[in-house]
Design a protein that fits this description.
The chain is an alpha/beta fold. It contains ten helices and ten strands. The relative contact order is 0.19. The chain binds 5'-O-[(R)-(carboxyoxy)(hydroxy)phosphoryl]adenosine and zinc ion. Zinc ion binds next to helix 3.
Length: 336
């Protein structure tokens, strides 16, 4: 089955063709750069960029896959969570494709899409396992009992992990998006320069909180002279990154212990972080656990993961009607 995936939940305009849920025939991602000068995603600009680029991105996905419009057998689209205006563009486009070609439509939860990046990358991955989905908009610990059967174990109470990277990069005047920049410069920095707070919250909690850490960096920066800041910018970035990584690793391990599984998977844009990938691999190796991390292109928002999740649902006979709507705060639910 050839499934077209469409993803427009935030600032990536993406289209992909996936065969039988496993084989990526094309995976086109246009990352919007208009937000750079604002230091964060501007929703209205994101919507306009999706309108401008979705059709060319879609056409490239067909061309790369070497198929024509009539070959598509189903269309999967992210319906939420995300920015409502951005979601609506992808959803409307997918509906038009579904209606005009008379092929099934399936709305996909964005978080479930990220989980399917792990299945796409690792065909041997089989549930149950714990998945840590970390990106600009969410930080979720999920128990994947089976494909389509999810239990939310923990989530952020304030900033998402990627949001903290982006905001701290702004405080340090590093540019946007902050995650990749902090990742890169931290290699040269001293991660023990300053011990920023780690919010582990109540005993046994698998929730996250990153806003205190972000504030702590901002306070430190405000107390430094320009000269001191210039000298220690890289050390502060590295120390901040280490604090985020410590919490993510510790909570990920705790979640596995609580659910008695020795399998952990990462997903989402922050899973591109090299220090995080390295630390998770070390911890898993030490315990003889299995760790699954998608390649960087499948961590970032993309439509291949959406198409793969769509293939799974369509093959179970599930589909959406043409009144599918964009749902900005869509919870991750289990299907039948
Ligand atoms: O999954 P994603 O592409 O979009 C959302 O669904 O949000 O994630 C984007 C987020 C941004 O906050 C970005 O700064 C962060 O992922 N990110 C990283 C890295 N690459 C992207 N954070 C830390 N280290 C990275 N290498
Ligand atoms: Zn995402």
């Amino acid at each position: 089955m050839l499934i077209l995936g469409i993803e427009t939940s935030c600032d990536e305009t993406a289209a992909s063709v996936v065969k039988d849920g496993k084989e990526i025939l094309s995976n086109v991602v246009y990352s919007q750069m208009v937000h750079e000068k604002y230091g964060g995603v501007v929703p209205e600009l994101a919507s306009r960029e999706h309108i401008r680029t979705l059709i060319p991105v879609f056409q490239s996905a067909l061309d790369e896959a070497k198929i024509s419009l009539g070959d598509i057998e189903g269309v999967a689209v992210t319906y939420g969570p995300g920015l409502v205006g951005s979601l609506l563009i992808g959803v409307s486009f997918a509906k038009a494709i579904s209606y005009s070609l008379n092929i099934p439509l399936i709305g996909i939860n964005h978080i479930e899409g990220h989980i399917f990046a792990d299945f796409l990358e690792n065909p041997k991955l089989s549930p149950p396992f714990v998945c840590l989905v970390i990106s600009g908009g969410h930080s979720n610990l999920i128990y994947v009992a089976d494909k389509g059967n999810y239990q939310l174990l923990g989530q952020t109470r304030d900033d998402a992990a990627g949001e903290a990277f982006d905001k701290v990069a702004k405080v340090l005047n590093l540019g946007y998006p902050g995650g990749p920049i902090i990742d890169k410069i931290s290699e040269e920095g001293n991660a023990n320069f300053f011990k920023f707070p780690r919010a582990y919250l109540e005993e046994g909690s698998l929730d996250f909180s990153f806003s205190g850490l972000k504030t702590s960096v901002a306070i430190m920066v405000s107390r430094l002279s320009e000269k001191e800041l210039r000298k220690h910018r890289i050390d502060i970035a590295a120390s901040f990154q280490e604090a985020v990584v410590d919490v993510l690793v510790e909570k990920g391990i705790k979640a596995c212990q609580q659910r008695q599984t020795k399998k952990i998977a990462l997903a989402g844009g922050v899973a591109r972080n090299r220090r995080l990938r390295e630390r998770f691999k070390q911890e898993a190796e030490k315990r003889h656990w299995d760790i699954f991390i998608p390649s960087p292109i499948l961590c970032t928002d993309n439509a291949a993961m959406v198409a793969s999740a769509g293939d799974f649902h369509l093959s179970r006979g599930e589909s959406s009607s043409l009144d599918l709507n964009a749902v900005p705060y869509a919870p991750l639910t289990s299907s039948k």
